[in-house]
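Recap for those who missed Tuesday's class. We walked through two folding examples back to back. For each one, the amino acid string is listed first and its predicted structure tokens come directly after. Nothing is annotated here on purpose, so try labeling regions yourself before you check the end of the notes.
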Amino acid sequence: MSRKFTPKVVTANDLLEGDVIWLTEDDQWTRHMAEAELIVDEAHAQIRLLFAEGQLAHIVGPYLADAQAGENGPEPTHFRETFRTRGPSNYAHGKQVEA
């Protein structure tokens, strides 16, 4: 018996800057998970992942991450994704401090 599909977002890292990014409904990449496309259909999720995998000149490591609908858009459901929304954590300067 297969597991029930849970909502997903497509995520990856920006190839040049390394930032965590999410795929939007209009085929753009955003650095804000709340702007990502929340995918509720398994077949559509696979199509969106294939689209992302075709963008390897701009991104690296695309995958489907579990998410849920929130007040302002998709929100993470796993601690790994929550951690990724906060940016780099291995130094106390740059983007981490600005956030």
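Example two. Treat it independently of the first, because the proteins are unrelated.
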Amino acid sequence: MSTGKSGAAGNGANGTGGPRRSRAGGGNPSGAGPSPGRPAVNGMSAPVTPGRVGLYLLLLIAGVLVALAGTLVQAAWFPGGLLLALAGTGGLFYGGATATGTLAGALIPGAGWLLAVFVLLSQVRPEGDFLFGAGTSSYLFLAGGIVAAVICATVAQRRAAGVPHGRVGG
């Protein structure tokens, strides 16, 4: 006896008459993107609001200020000052990523930090004044700040993507 419905005929492949859903689709029948009523909040695709733009602007300014303070502190007290300057940069980048919940929260203060360090502070004035000496501490501050920005951006990206913590495979 036939009921008139076949598994692969006309009304969807699952025989229920509705569209076929996959587990990876997240409830959206097309399987592409977020559900219709919910905006994507992972990575750089968070909704743009005036508050979020203001927060990003504050993070950019904080990145410049932390770079200025770190430049002065790392040279003044060599081992402790360098560690304090790097802790300040890492704290700003991680705090920005945590406060916004996006990858941009770590990248925007990192961009302000890089702008201040490489463009504004690395210029040698005609009088011979400069803020970065040619010592090991300056190079460790430059490399450590870049590494801190990359680590914090990677952690923010993994958290936004929903990657679970722990071992792979069990």
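Answers for example two:
The longest helix spans residues 50-76.
The two ends are 47 Å apart (CA to CA).
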